[in-house]
Amino acid sequence: MASVTVKSFVGLHQTSLENYNRRHSVTGLSKCVVPSQLKYRRLNVVAAKSNPKIAGRNLRVAVVGGGPAGGAAAETLAKGGIETFLIERKMDNAKPCGGAIPLCMVAEFDLPLDIIDRRVTKLKVISPSNVSVDVHKTLKPHEYVGMVRREVLDGYLRERAVASGATIINGLFTKMDKPQEKNGTYVLHYNAFNGESVSAGERMSIEVDAVIGADGANSRVAKSIDAGDYEYLIAFQERIKLPDDKMQYYENLAEMYTGDDVSPDFYGWVFPKCDHVAVGTGTIGHKPDIKKFQDATRLRARDKILGGKIMRVEAHPIPQHPRPRRVVDRVALIGDAAGYVTKGSGEGIYFAAKSGRMCAEAIVEGSDYGRRMVDEGDMRSYLKKWDKAYGPTFKVMNILERLFYRSNPAREALVELFGNEYVQKMTFDSYMYKKVVHGNPLEDLKLAVNTIGSLVRANALSKMAN
Ligand SMILES: Cc1cc2nc3c(=O)[nH]c(=O)nc-3n(C[C@H](O)[C@H](O)[C@H](O)COP(=O)(O)OP(=O)(O)OC[C@H]3O[C@@H](n4cnc5c(N)ncnc54)[C@H](O)[C@@H]3O)c2cc1C
Known about the structure:
Elements: H1 20-23, E1 60-64, H2 68-79, E2 83-88, E3 100-101, H3 103-108, E4 118-120, E5 122-126, E6 132-134, E7 145-147, H4 150-163, E8 167-177, E9 186-192, E10 202-208, E11 210-213, H5 220-224, E12 232-241, H6 244-249, E13 253-257, E14 268-272, E15 277-283, H7 290-300, E16 309-319, E17 327-328, E18 331-333, H8 335-338, H9 349-366, H10 376-404, H11 408-418, H12 421-433, H13 441-465
Parallel strand pairs: 1-2, 1-11, 2-8, 5-13, 11-18
Antiparallel strand pairs: 3-7, 4-7, 5-6, 8-9, 9-10, 12-15, 12-16, 13-14, 14-15, 17-18
Helix pairs in contact: 2-4, 2-9, 9-10, 11-13
The chain binds flavin-adenine dinucleotide (FAD).
């Protein structure tokens, strides 16, 4: 098979946008650094072999949705020579989210530290009977879980895409006309807001060669390609402003509450943000009861959030597994639109940005830096790499969820296991670095025995309770 090695792939990493900490809003796009100021990492890619060359222009790709998935995808595409359009309906969107990100995301995406509100170095997991375990004992001095506000993170990633050459369109994507012939164009229809998201917008359309759907859990792009549905969890969250002394307690501390009262199939949380805490919970199988679970979560944290004022109430679906079809022809789904959230933890920010970058890299590679048309095979090469890199993580999370989230005794067993420092280290290392952690065989054996012991006990207790 003939392949051509091309020059280094310019792109993917850059320094922080200057002065971002002074703005922290998504109003102007003018103060971005120019691409020549950016630091690049080198990546060798193999150019496409057989797709036709495009004459007189570069490959055009529309990214629908400007969350972490869309922002990361658009940046990578633009740096790779693709004419990139990023369509976002709400430029100051504050996505309902806990905002917890793993340490590796800060480095991999060169996030400036000033967009991270809090560095969590303490994590308490609390059992149904209120046994609280500190699970941060093995954290090294430089390690932390980052807490971000989504309006800040998403705005920052979008600005970086623009600084790299992407064109941003403030509009609501409404529908897509598919190509009528091989290598024909996709026509995307949208309501353009021109900064006024309250107005109905002006009907506009754009022609592109390929489309990335990064429009979240209710993805219209997914519907347009008949990507199929996924099971979802409904997450509910309240932003609560605490009195100073209460806020001090949560300065660098996050809490996770487990129990049938807070959720029969997920967990409740208190996460610290810049000047408030986010208190929330979620459920897959008992959606009509979500407010009852939220009340219970607030009740469990009662003494610590006493005197707090609710500033904002929000809810949003969280996908539980990938959609049946994530690539159809020259349309690919990424992030929540594809269904990349780990079950049991609800983590999706890193996976959104990472899938955006991987999908865009596949397009840059397949198109030979925008010089050639891409085909479904090029788009699919991202799926292959994605499934290889993250498939095992998603599988393990599924198994853990099934083992430990099914009853209160099982959750007591989970919290008991978290008391073990080896378990803490394995859990944090896998979360922080998104790599398969190779354990110590003897400790692994002890862990297996402990896990079985805890589960057997949990089972017995469960039977006694019934
Ligand atoms: C309550 C809650 C708490 C969570 N907590 C965490 C957490 O602590 N850590 C974590 O890692 N994950 C968390 N998640 C999951 C995380 O929020 C998602 O996985 C992540 O936001 C996915 O990013 P995305 O870019 O794929 O989609 P989104 O963030 O949903 O972004 C989609 C974007 O597309 C835009 N859009 C949608 N439709 C259109 C359209 N038709 N036209 C134009 N634009 C459109 C939206 O405005 C939005 O900006 C949480 C989720 C919820 C609901």
